[in-house]
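[Structure tokenization] protein backbone as discrete codes

[Encoding] learned vocabulary of local backbone shapes

[Begin record] amino acids and matching fold tokens:

___
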Amino acid sequence: MLRDKNLIPLSRQHQHALALCVRIERASPIEQKRAEWQAEIAQQFEAEIKVHFVAEERIVFPAARALPELNPLVEELLVEHKWLRASFAKAEAKQMSAEELVAFARGLSEHIRKEERQLFERMQELMRPEELAVIGQQLDEALRSAVQVCSLPSSES
């Protein structure tokens, strides 16, 4: 399904995070660049993902909760946000092992795909265009403080 224009800002940020996940999953050997990966993860969290999570939790998830069938999914996504925040903090503290880096990349990728393929799809199917437009206006305002950058792979990654 084509993404509703009101959810596109979140989808763009999802693409930035997915690019990082793919690069981590393809990196070999990851141990030699563990510090650099953790620094990049921490930077992406500060630049974009922190604001992204808040926007989802304050705008998207409450709107989705108005649709009873989405409540279990929203609860699952909130639990994942908690795990991801802990993972970002661990990366910032440079305490992730190589195995944890790979698990983080897989977990973040799965989380994003769940939001895109399940949450956003169902919201688009169940909500009226006017409801999605309100969400879009609120997201525009909430995401203004996020740096809209896509980390490009370095020649060493």
In short: DSSP finds five helices and no strands in the chain. The longest helix spans residues 34-65. The domain at 8-143 is CATH 1.20.120.520 (Four Helix Bundle (Hemerythrin (Met), subunit A)). The helical segments are 8-26, 34-65, 71-92, 98-126, 129-143.
